[in-house]
Design brief:
Helix content is 34%, strand content 16%. With 539 residues, it is α/β, with parallel strands linked by helices. The chain binds ligand NGO.
Length: 539
């Protein structure tokens, strides 16, 4: 008994120490105000899990006893009643309407509204919660969500959704009652970058499918959506100055299907849809390799002046833009120019991976020039870790996927890192040998494997101060339908969301899998075709 208590006390001290080390500016955005280092951190416990089943687990949560019941008479009161807060309130009202049948109005208020209502406010918001943090106080009479910034309110209302019964996510009217446990929550993310990537190049997915994926990621408080827009098998965005890229280069896919592409209006629609969910779209045009679709569309981009055939296989590393031709840089400039103009986010992802058909000196020369072009269009560069071979420009980010040494080269040049280790975070890896979809080159990634790692300990020598966050990519060589996207993404994505958001201390699979099990009915209600792995005690 005494030994157990000693362990608990030692454990709590370690937790506080680890938490102190954890809080630092992650650098993905202009330095945000960070929470104070003395904020108490709870280790998520099984009893808390039973109370709330939240994913990601909040930084601090106390159950205060009793519950709040959402009635048809409830209103969502926002303060100040700006267009932005009214839109956030309306997002919540729209999410609650189909299953409750309640037409909940969004109303202006000054100060807390009457009992029975929901109150969303930035008035008196605590700046130490940062841009995405929030506090949520639920009593038997009122739900108060307070944040320093509107983004924090948006993140916090996902917590409100998750505290309601799973049936709240149904698209048809359900019985209720719509109760939430009384809690006090104070919450903010560990990392500024919490991403999901969708490869629309190997197989194309429509704007409708993409927006659905974005809305689902919002439920788990993710904030970066990386669109892999071009590859050997397809070019998926109209570039007005080079129209054949989409028309011809987008005309097929892996396996020889019909392909497809986004118009610029589609892309803008996706960007705006993401922005309304406080999610930044990161466009990627992969270069100088992974460019067969572009090379097939324009003969002049090839060193020999001959356009290759379209490619529908799955090999990598065979294509390259012609590094020595001036037209190549006109092409890059035109493409970056058009995409940058449509992209409000600070970053442009230039790929840069697996350029085995480009000599090393050509690769370095190309990446250096491409970075200059991207910077000249007022975008910061992101590249896969491979671009560390070049001279990185200031504030570039590198995306770690396979090689720790290369990644550290980039860090030595001052770059910060997005962690997407293929063996842990690639959503295209099979769960087990029996999984019909997916690949195995980086290993099998069970739900437990996907959850049980920490960004800080993945690459030895890489410290947390160099890490901006985590991103889970879904490459789509074997992914053809919306149901396939769901199956490989869920339920692993909530785990990556928790790695990116929640304190490392106290995170453990045994506790997490119970909370994840409680998300089964939620994902079902949301219409998600998730993998019902036997690793998880599904409810
Ligand atoms: C690699 C490769 C991609 C593949 C993916 C499949 C990177 C960065 N480049 O990851 O082209 O689609 O593996 O797992």
């Amino acid at each position: 008994m005494r030994t157990t208590r000693l362990f608990v006390i030692v454990g709590m001290c370690l937790a506080l120490l680890a938490f102190g080390a954890m809080i630092k500016d992650t650098g993905a955005q202009p330095p945000a105000l960070r929470p104070p280092t003395n904020t108490p951190i709870p280790s998520p416990t099984a009893s808390q899990g039973a109370t709330t089943n939240l994913i990601p687990m909040p930084v601090s949560l106390q159950s205060t006893g009793g519950s709040f019941t959402l009635a048809s008479s409830a209103g969502i009161y926002v303060e100040p009643a700006s267009a932005e807060l009214t839109a956030i309130g309306q997002y919540l009202a729209d999410k609650l309407k189909p299953s409750t049948g309640f037409a909940i109005p969004v109303l202006a208020t000054t100060g807390a509204p009457a009992n029975g209502n929901l109150y969303l406010t930035t008035a008196g918001g605590d700046s130490t919660l940062g841009t995405e943090g929030y506090s949520l106080t639920i009593t038997s009479t009122l739900v108060t969500l307070r944040a320093y910034q509107p983004t924090g309110l948006f993140r916090g209302l996902q917590t409100i959704r998750q505290l309601l019964p799973a049936a709240i996510e149904n698209s048809t009217v359900q019985a209720g009652p719509w109760t939430m446990p009384a809690v006090t929550i104070r919450d903010y993310p560990r990392f500024a970058w919490r991403g999901y990537m969708l490869d629309v190049a190997r197989h194309f997915f429509s704007a409708v499918e993409v927006k659905r994926a974005i809305d689902l990621m919002a439920y788990y408080k993710l904030n970066r959506f990386h669109l892999h827009l071009s590859d050997d098998q397809g070019w998926r965005l109209v570039i007005n100055s080079w129209p054949n890229l989409a028309i011809y280069g987008g005309s097929t896919a892996v396996g020889g299907g019909p392909g497809g592409y986004f118009t610029q209006a589609d892309y803008t629609d996706i960007v705006n849809y993401a922005a309304a969910r406080y999610i930044t779209v990161i466009p990627e045009i992969d270069m100088p390799g992974h460019t067969n679709a572009a090379l097939a569309s324009y003969a002049e981009l090839n060193c020999n002046g001959v356009a290759p055939a379209l490619y529908t296989g799955t090999n990598v590393g065979f294509s390259s833009l012609c590094v020595s031709k001036a037209i190549t840089y006109t092409f890059v400039d035109n493409v970056v120019n058009e995409i940058a103009a449509l992209t409000p986010g600070a970053y442009f992802h230039m790929g840069g991976d697996e350029s085995s058909a480009t000599t090393s000196s050509d690769y370095i020369s190309f990446v250096n020039q491409a970075q200059g072009i991207i910077n000249s269009h007022n975008k910061l560069v992101i590249g896969w870790e491979d671009i560390s071979a070049s001279t990185l420009t200031a504030n570039s980010l590198i995306q770690h996927w396979n090689n720790g040494t290369t990644t550290l080269n980039g860090v030595q040049q001052g770059a910060k890192v997005i962690m997407s280790p293929a063996s842990k975070a690639y959503l295209d890896m099979k769960y087990s040998r029996q999984t019909k979809l997916g690949q195995t080159w980086a290993g099998l990634i069970s739900i437990q494997t996907g959850y049980s790692w920490d960004p800080e300990t993945q690459v030895s020598g890489l410290s947390e101060s160099s890490i901006v966050g985590v991103e889970a990519p879904l490459w789509t060589e074997t992914i053809v339908t919306r149901a396939d996207i769901d199956y490989m993404t869920y339920p692993r994505l909530p785990g990556y969301a928790e790695i990116g958001w929640s304190p490392a201390t106290g995170r453990n699979w045994t506790e997490y899998k119970v909370r994840l099990g409680a998300h089964g009915p939620r994902l079902t209600a949301l219409g998600v075709n998730f993998f019902r792995s036997s690793e998880v005690p599904w409810q």
